[in-house]
Amino acid sequence: xxxxxxxxxxxxxxxxxDVVVVGVLAAGIPWDMPYRCPALAxxxxxxxxxxxxxxxxxxxxxxxxLGRFFAGIYLCETRSV
Length: 81
Hints:
Blueprint: E1 10-13, E2 16-25, E3 52-57, E4 60-65, H1 66-73, E5 75-78
Antiparallel strand pairs: 1-2, 1-5, 2-3, 3-4
């Protein structure tokens, strides 16, 4: 099962401020819609995917490519959903 970062989850990274996942952006999928894809064999590093993780920190929004997000930069600290 592939599990996307979910809105409301808090992620921590050493040397960086904590971020809260606001949503996942993808063509045709609302950015604020929580979802899971249990049947999907996922490779976040393939260029054909254009999914971004949208995060919020001190009212500043940042969009991070999914592959970079999963590359160990951020680790889930709290699941508040």
